[in-house]
Structures
1.
Amino acid sequence: MMKAKLFQPVFLFFILFYFFAGQKSQVFADNMESDSYKIQFGNFNMASGKRSGDTYILSDTMGGLAVGPYGQYGSSNYFIGSGFQYVYQIDYFAFSISKLSIELGELFANSFKTDSHTINITTNGAGGYGVYAFENHPLRMVAGSDTIIDTTCDANDCDETIATSWTDPAQAGFGFNASGDDVSSDFVNTNYFRQFADNEASEAMQQIMGSSNVALDRTATISYKASMPGNQTAGNYQTSIVFVAVPGY
Amino acid sequence: MFLKFLNQVTVCMRYCFFALFFLAINSNLIKAASALDLKVFPPTSYLSVKPGAGVNHQIKLKNDGLYTLEITPALVNFHSDDQVGQVILEQKSDFKYLNLDGDENKWSKSFIIKPGEEQTLNFVIALPSDAEYKEHYLSILFQAKQLLYTNDSSKDTSLSAVVVSNVILLVSADDQNRGELTIEQFFLPKMADSFIGFNFSALVKNIGINATSVDGYIKISHWPDQNVEIYELYPDMVLAGGKRLVRSMLQEDLETLAKMEESKDIKIAAGEDYEAKKAKFINEKLKTKQFYKKSFLIGAYDLELKVGDDILQKRVIVLPFSVLLIAILLPLIYWTFNLLVKSFKKPVDLNN
């Protein structure tokens, strides 16, 4: 009974310690705050020392510290009188994809197969961002050479640059829709689809999401849809999709 | 003996329940990990290097996703959209003096980054002594895909990501700022309605040879008040030879932001999502196109735009056009209505 009495506060202490200590949010950058240096203008490097190389003398940018016009943690000298030091602090640019494979399953004529995932972006800065997408090639049969063309939508009027309505499975093809934060305005609703830019055909990747503002935890859902023409072999088709996340300046 | 054991078990269960309860709360606060979650720092760097000199530029990559990633770095040029500071990637770069660990062969070679791991990559910029004085716009691409230990015989469509870190590199003999901003356009209507207000925006051009930041204000004055509103220009960077729409924020809003920042710790302690609230506030107030509206505006409003040493003044005349329009239209509508009523009225037969 004595042991149990001793055990109770110790256990309680560990639980409370875990709860309160564990709540700290993740911090990704080293906290190297500085008000001591004055940034004269945008182009600079914060040299912290010199290294002798074979042919060059190299100075360091200290792991990218003070690499923007404002300094990582808002060097206040730069903003004297303007008050913009609170607008943002340069930090990690983060991009995530919820899953890494799209399972459309076996495709059959005149029926849609779909799948989706989310993408998320945090710029931690006011410079904005853009997310682009492209496919390495059109959907191609896993064991074979048959391909499914990129969708042209219901009225044969969509391509990799513009989304239009696609609800008729008899219009065979492969395309995607984007919905959520900061998505391109041509995705009017979840029935509006676009082709992916085809890298094999040297098509330029296209922007699907973007903003010139501060982006904090911006999420979009990417939905994929495919249907097969009636004269084609049923089976599994695949490609690879690449998302390119670019920070603004 | 058995009762004592039972008592201890009960106590244990009680505390386990307590622990699980807190764990559940805690896990709700932590975001579920994504399959691919890659972070890069810094997103954009501004570097100045002299010909014949060099600099170590370090970029941090962090894998916060569920899988081990295979990263392949690549270098391309970029150009600006000349509007909002958006980076438009080009297909390739012929800039030879920026290499990972100083080795040009490392561009196409991939490396591994495990979940939870952070790597600091050292990019060496080493310029020859005859390097041309010029500003280079470079993007370092990190193509990330899930490391597969077996042959890729998947029936599914695979997804991968490219995360970018931009480098704006000035080749210059000294650290002198040779950026110079001029006002390219100041968009303001000549006339506006008293009840609607007016909007304004400005495009600036950098006629200098290096990127420089916007500095200045937009001031609205209306007789007799000389400073009705002052909008501070956000210090966005404008690349050499490039253009950019300026972003501005009202001085009052900047003060509100400063007050918000002062009470940041209290708000966070109270469980408020401070960063989300702050981002929302900034996005609402810091804009390229500002809209000036009060309950009623009248007369001439003078707007002064100052960017660097360049000053431009414009005037907008604000009158109650909507009231004038209604005043003209009302008698017309009344007259038309009366005419219609008269024409539909049955004629009176005087003989009966």
Note: Residues 34-90 of chain A form one domain.
2.
Amino acid sequence: MARVHILLVLAVIGCALYVVMSQHKARNLLAELQQETDRAQQMEVEWGQLQLEQSTWAMPARVDKIAVNKLQMRAPKGQQTRLIYSKGSHESSVRP
Amino acid sequence: MNYFKGTQTKKLVTLPAWRSRLLFILLLAGMGILILRAAYLQSINNNFLQQKGNARSSHVMAISAHRGMIADRHGEPLAISTPVESIGVNPQDVEVTPQQLNQLARIMSMDIKEVKRRLLDTTHDFVHLQRQLPPAQVEQIVKLGVPGLLLQREYRRYYPGGEVTAHLIGFTSVDDNGQEGLELALQSELGGKAGSQRIIQDRKGHIAEDIANIRLPKPGNNIALSVDSKIQYLAYREIKSAVEQHNAQSGSIVVLDAQSGEVLALANWPSYNPNNRTKPSLQVLRNHAVTDLFEPGSTLKPFTVATALEVGKYTPESVINIENGVFRIGKHAIHDTHPKKTLLTVAEVIQLSSNVGAAKIALSLSPEMVWQGLNDSGFGAQAGSGFPGEAAGKLHDHTKWKPVDQAAISYGHNISVSLLQLARAYTVFANNGELKPVSWLKLDKPASGKRVYSDATAHKMLAMLERVVSPEGTAPLAQVNGYRVAGKTGTAHKVIDGHYSPNRYISSFVGMAPASSPRLIVAVMLDAPAKGQYYGGIVAAPVFSSVMGAALRQLNVPNDKPLGNILMPPTEIVREEV
């Protein structure tokens, strides 16, 4: 009887220690997870900001201004355009 | 050294028995009180205490959910939410030195007195110091290390398009809810639902354990609009320059995909920058193209004529006597101020925009037929786009029409429409007689329309509308190099307080190209141009031409006419009837 009791007590102590250990592990993992989600969120923020930046730089108004003023570009006139049709296209259009 | 002496001399006294008993009872009572107290705390008051205990370590944390992105049809962002931090404070917890206060006020560029007032406002548990700060400033504030300051993540909406897309997209409130435009119309799709989570925090405020997700956050959906941001910019640029050139009160332009009814661009000038928190006057906020009604004038004539063709009473070649420009109905007279000939064919009525011709055609039909034709083309009812504040327009019931009303409606008076409605109505001529619903969202396949006129009628109308844009028509300036164009000018006296203004006009042009198989419909309207010119063919048609030309090139639409042959009339452009 006594031996069984001692065994059970030892088992209980073992379990208790294991609970403590796994709790600790769980907390560590959670902290890691938290860090990763924070990082993910940070990246999401950055992505949004980059997207915003890209679209701000690529605004048609800005492209238009740079093309015309800085690069001296202009839209080609009708006479300067040639239309090239790919084979098999059956557009009912008139060629210049 | 003999202090034992005294005690030795005294005899040992026995204490009375009650003293020990009293002590025993007192101790017992003390223990009893402790037991009762313990029982009280452990069982009766347990819940309350447990709650308090939990409140020290476990919190409900809100998980913010961001609002969906609005993009154009090619995925270019038009409205994005990015997180910003709001600085709040619990005045009961805050400890701040005067120096920190100074710095705080400087970083947030706020008045120091105001900061102080908010910090010391102990009537509230939470006070916002400053909302939606850029990340750099937030970092500086965090570095100050003032205890009691709380950061709250919020989302702020940015509109890369700024003024170009202002009226179309609208804007959101500081709480990220739609207030105007498509932001409001699509609120239920775009808006995210914040979630919450119960967590246990350790002493340093780190999350030690999350107990439960009370509610999962639901971020808003991203939405792809039908808008093409390049065409949108073209439209905006041209309408802006036209309004400035003609010193008009305002101008609007709508570009529709003729086959699917999708809105490719919609712009107004004057416009505003939705990124600024301070908003301009209501007049500037108004999306004139959708919410404002105007009498369209001659741009409505094609619908009268199409109804007449549909009934079979006329062909484009039928001849109408325009009575030398004056046509009397009872007491009223309808004028053609620039009659070129006495006899006009139906096609010429459209080409030269004859009021008398249109009135005579309308009067030869029953009121119900005219009304039906207009009603089927979507006039007098909302275009069903779901845009906030969309105007339905006015088309009086035909039973109330007198002959003079019927005549007036035929050339676009006594009826009011919005520009969007007008543009949509022209899908009838572009789509073999089918009216397409307006869509703000990108469609995978064209929506099915409603048949208004037969194929034959629509084709005949298209041919007649092409003549408007010829050198002999009212809108040679609407020609586009390399493409056949069909369209109609409109010039109408502006209605101010229920009366026609003698010298203020609304100039418009609605057209489509390429006429061989229309891809785009562009509707332009200028309100009260004030630099002498006011004819739709002179004021609005050039805007149409430049937007249409550039947009067709943008979309790689093949030419349907040789390049380089813009013909202009030898003398003056034919003036349309107002």
Note: Chain B is about 35% helix and 20% strand.
3.
Amino acid sequence: MLVNQFLFLGAILFCIGVYGVLARRNAVLLLMSIELILNSVNINLVAFGALWHANDPSNLSGQVFALFVIAIAAAEVGVGLAIVLMLYRTRRSIDVSEVDLMKG
Amino acid sequence: MIGVGRVLAADLLVAQNIAFYLIAVGMVIAAVRVVTVKNMVHAALWLVLVLGGIAAQFILLAAEFIAITQVLVYIGAIIVLFLFGIMLTRAPMDRSPDLDHPKQARVVGAAIGLVLLAVMGYALWDGFEDRQFGQILVQRTAQVSDSIFSTYLLPFEVVSVLLLAALIGAIVLARRD
């Protein structure tokens, strides 16, 4: 298998996630797009990890970093959804284009 | 015997490639549905398909522990959190028209995505061209744990503290008072 197969899959998913962040207005769907981006990065990390591991079997840095990314993504979703719930409670809407209190 | 082994290895490689492309096409279609579909619950369910496909790609890369973690954490926990979020914000369960920005903003978003894809595709092809993986060895769970608890012990502890902080932060934010 080519290394680039996995890297291109990661790049395509990343770009779809970026489109989602720019095009969606609903805060929960925005968080889902961010999950797409984080997962595409994980594909890259694990692919590079497999490449390194084939040369040096004691090196598993790629997988360990992917695990850290998963842990941080879980924390991000937890805090993000708490913020979305607060937003809904105060404004009865989770449309991010209406959250413009700090706009100059 | 060596000849037989070589044929089997080549067959396995063809099977891996076919599996990769089938799963990859399914994942890209599902990802596009996640960012375009008009029903929030359907978006979460399409996201399940993308995340499951990523777990399958990890299996193809012989990374067993992270594939199982992906299923446990993402499909098991994060999707349920998303569905909770959708239901707690009383989103309509059927099609809703106001999930996206207006058309011109979406066109700009698509253009930015395509430019990004072109730049990344050029950089990746420039850097790796047709480099092969060679023999992908199974990365065993015991080796991963050895690596986490020796080389990466300090970052692991920092991530633990970060998770605790995020937990407390989420409780404080979501508490009704």
Note: Chain A touches chain B through 73 residues (CB under 8 Å).
